[in-house]
Design a protein that fits this description.
single chain; alpha/beta; 7-stranded mixed sheet; 3 helices; 7 strands; about 20% strand; globular; disordered C terminus
Length: about 190
């Protein structure tokens, strides 16, 4: 007699989207607007998907987010609305008024937040430094563009130092071609 076995029944496993990569400043006891409230590192340039994930995380922390503003420079498609936790969030965009490396989030109940947007293609070490810089409570307030520019300068300097083995000594592709000198003839 032969036994037949059937495969186990399939069961539904709920899909859980990855949570937003986010670093926020601690709540400050002193009133006043700071330049940045933290940093956000999206996984892609799909603004609809990325904003939904971000708002999904921030709604419980900050209250219901009602409006989001971005600069369209780095986003290929801009939605007018996204849906988060059963409500619509309006999305606006500004070209000259808003830093392209910043996102603005508004809530009727809790106010305004400005986050540095770390480009999705940024490597993990650079993203960690950017997140730390944007969420630190030390130093004077700085803009999102200034933080990104400082990181890019740091990356160039670090890669040159790794190539030459000496800080401050730029060679090859770091400062242009090397100069060749002719050997002296006695």
């Amino acid at each position: 007699m032969s036994a037949t076995t059937s495969p186990p029944p399939l069961r539904a496993v709920p899909f859980r989207a990855p949570t937003a990569r986010l670093a926020l400043k601690p709540v400050s006891p002193s009133p006043g607007h700071v330049e940045l409230d933290g940093a956000w590192w999206p996984r892609s340039r799909d603004l609809t998907h990325e904003l939904s994930a971000l708002a999904d995380v921030l709604d419980p922390l900050w209250g219901r987010i009602t409006h989001i503003a971005v600069n369209p420079r780095y986003w290929p498609t801009l939605p007018r609305k996204i849906f988060v936790n059963g409500h619509a969030v309006e999305v606006g965009w500004f070209t000259s008024e808003q830093d392209p490396h910043k996102i603005l989030l508004l809530s009727y109940t809790a106010g305004r937040w400005d986050l540095l947007v770390i480009p999705p293609e940024t490597g993990a070490p650079s993203a960690a430094r950017l997140m730390a810089a944007a969420s630190a409570n030390t130093g004077p307030p700085t803009t999102a563009a200034a933080i990104v520019a400082a990181e890019q300068v740091g990356e160039t300097s670090s890669s040159c130092e790794a190539t030459t083995g000496r800080p401050g000594r730029l060679m090859g592709g770091c400062d242009g071609p090397r100069r060749r000198t002719r050997p002296s003839v006695p």
